[in-house]
Write a structure and sequence with these properties.
The structure holds 2 protein chains of 2 kinds. By secondary structure, chain A is mainly α. Chain A has 2 domains: about 50 residues, no CATH class; about 240 residues, MetI-like fold (Orthogonal Bundle). In chain A, about 70% of the residues lie in helices and about 0% in strands. In chain A, α7 runs antiparallel to α10. In chain A, about 40% of the residues are buried. By secondary structure, chain B is of the alpha/beta class. Chain B is built from 11 helices and 10 strands. Chain B is globular. The chains are: A mainly alpha, B alpha/beta. Chains A and B meet through α8 and α9 of A and α3, α4 and α7 of B.
Chain lengths: ~325, ~300
């Protein structure tokens, strides 16, 4: 064919260069091929891992805490203010641990929410490109510091520092631990809030400027309210991270469960108690050992509730810009 | 303008070419009444000497980094008129508009030379605050961009940040009435502005701008994102507004320019080719390029 002279060259050339067309047979099973199916199932299996893990954890916590609640009635668990599983006279009042957790969480929120939001606003709205290029990785670095390092930072730097102007502050105290947990969650607040602020279309800020707004007014009275849903979600996620934080409070907050609202006292959080029991020599099957599952269950329910709440908030305040 | 009249006689209230008789009759009544003359006869284009221009633009150059976008624009904008800026894409008309209230400064890496006077005050002078300029010269954007707040708060927003001490309810109502939106939204003032249709949102943005009580309202293709019915409502609103405001409007739509504007400036490649009363520019253009553009031979 290729040797035929000029007259019909166009079609001939096309056929030789093109070869058989791929879609000649429309009945090939490409869309439903085994390969496509295999990929779909593999991806689905990966997605299932986290769901199944969560369900597994919930199931273990529930089942393992049944024996505990058989010997400790709920009325004691929620009605008692002392938590003394290691004493001869045992008391299991969750408030002693819960108040420690709440104290640390509140202190950390007081530190992290304003600072984190302010950093987010600065990075998103004020910083020049190169400042942003330095600040963002800096924040991410802060997020990458191991919590055990934070724990010793609290114990050996922040506590001595606080002791210089808080008289009578002990070596272990909720204040120092709370502040450092706060520092730890700043990057989370900052990064998620910054994403929320970036998502606000800049046509809104431009409208504000055209109405004679200053930069501060445009940011605080237009952009921040428009990003409110995302900012709230970042707060809640960060707070639930603080509730679950373990290492810092184990190292710096002490090991004395007590129902108190005084941040200068040594306390024990729920997480720290679980660590103490599980790393110590408490024999399995004893009531102390069983108690950590009950405490874990409470912790799990609190963080679950916070996350559901965060989801609600984001959806509720989702601005349709 | 619900029944659109032929485009060549200029829009309703101040009949454009009905000449200067009133002007000569009452020469002493002029000084204090340049702005809100309701008998509009003396505001016709032929009466320039009596009216101080609202805006003077003198040898204005503007660069986006090294792109010379405006190359020596000189023009005056008359008070209580609608001035249209037309020209093909990229001719600099939106850039020029943004220069008039210093919105161009929000874009990084731009340079401006030349002067722009609003009522004789240099808006680019050392000691002029851009925030104050924008309170005097408001702007409505191409795409409706209401805040994700209630209708009421959208309108009250600018007034509140500018420290308005009067009756905010009354201001909101007046602004919405001026923007011809009041009747449609008066029962839902405290619902989200985002539930309004696109045309209503754009009129809300106009109301929001008016609530700051500017002298000049700049509009950057305010109807280009709207359907024809919403467009005609916005155009009606604009025509109403020139009683109280000076309006500069950028438009791609030449029918729109001829329907609503009193004067038209044709820009091409960053230069002002021709500026004339709208009916003249569209029927007897001075320059060949203007004629080619308005008759649709290029652009």
């Amino acid at each position: 064919m290729s040797t035929t002279p000029s007259p019909p060259p166009t079609t001939a050339d096309n056929e030789t260069t093109r070869g058989p067309r791929p879609a000649d047979d429309l009945r090939q099973q490409v869309y439903d091929s085994p390969k496509e199916k295999a990929i779909e199932y593999a991806l689905g299996a990966c997605a299932l891992v986290s769901v199944l893990t969560t369900l597994g954890i919930a199931a273990v916590l529930l089942i393992e805490s049944i024996p505990f609640f058989q010997s400790v009635p709920l009325s004691e668990f929620f009605g008692e203010t002392r938590w003394t599983p290691q004493f001869t006279e045992k008391h299991f009042g969750i408030w002693a641990l819960l108040s420690g957790t709440l104290l640390v969480t509140v202190i950390s929120a007081v530190v992290a929410l304003p600072v984190g939001l302010a950093s987010a606003i600065f990075i998103s709205e004020y910083a020049s490109t190169w400042v942003r290029k330095i600040l963002k990785p800096g924040l991410e670095l802060l997020a990458g510091v191991p919590t055990v390092v934070y724990g010793y930072f609290a114990l050996s730097f922040v506590t001595p520092l606080l002791q210089t102007f808080v008289p009578g502050l002990g070596v272990y105290n909720a204040l120092s631990a709370g502040i450092v947990v706060g520092i730890m969650i700043i990057p989370m607040v900052a990064s998620l809030s910054e994403d929320a602020l970036q998502a606000v279309p800049n046509t809104l800020a431009r409208a504000a400027y055209a109405l004679g707004a200053t930069k501060y007014e445009a940011v605080v009275r237009v952009n921040v309210p428009a990003a409110f849903g995302g900012i709230m979600a970042s707060f809640i996620l960060a707070v639930s991270r603080a509730i679950g934080e373990t290492m810092i409070v184990t190292l710096a907050a002490g090991a004395s469960p007590k129902t108190t609202a005084d941040p200068t006292e040594a306390i024990q959080t729920m997480t720290a108690f679980i660590v103490q029991v599980s790393k110590g020599d408490t024999p399995q099957g004893t009531i102390e050992y069983q108690s950590i599952f009950a405490v874990g269950l409470v912790l799990f329910l609190i963080t679950l509730a916070m996350n559901v709440f965060a989801n609600r908030i984001t959806r509720r305040y989702q601005e349709k810009y | 303008m619900s029944t659109n009249e032929p485009t060549d006689d200029a829009p309703p209230s101040p009949p454009a070419p009905s000449p200067a008789s009133a002007d000569e009759a009452t020469p002493d009544a002029r000084p204090q009444s340049t702005r809100d003359d309701t008998p509009p006869a003396d505001a016709s284009p032929s009466a320039e000497p009596s009216v101080e221009p609202k805006l003077n633009i003198d040898d204005l150059h503007f660069w986006y980094s090294d792109n010379h976008a405006l190359q020596g624009i000189t023009m005056d904008v008359q008070p209580n008129k609608v001035t249209a800026l037309i020209g093909p894409s990229g001719c600099g008309k939106s850039t020029l508009l943004r220069c008039l209230n210093r919105m161009n400064e929000l874009i990084q890496g731009t340079t401006l030379e030349g002067t722009i006077l609003v009522d004789g005050q240099d808006i680019y002078a050392e000691d002029t605050d851009p925030v104050m300029v924008r309170r005097r010269v408001g702007m409505v954007f191409q795409k409706p961009n209401p805040f994700p707040k209630t209708i009421y708060k959208n309108v009250a927003w600018g007034a509140e940040i500018n420290g308005y001490t009067g009756d905010v309810d009354a201001l909101v109502e007046r602004s919405l009435r001026q923007a011809a939106l009041w009747d449609e939204v008066k029962d839902q003032l405290h619902t989200s502005a985002l539930n309004l249709s696109g045309g209503q949102q754009q009129r809300l943005c106009i109301a929001r701008t008016l609530a700051v009580q500017p002298d000049v309202v700049l509009m950057d293709e305010p109807a280009s994102a709207l359907d024809p019915i919403a467009t005609s409502k916005v155009e009606e609103t604009i025509t109403e507004l020139k009683k109280d405001y000076t309006i500069v409007i950028v438009t791609h739509n030449m029918q729109q320019a001829s329907r609503i504007s009193d004067e038209t400036a044709f820009l091409y490649m960053g230069r002002l080719v021709e500026m004339n009363p709208t009916d003249e520019l569209f029927t007897r253009p001075e320059k060949d390029r203007t004629e080619a553009y308005v008759t649709g031979r290029f652009g």
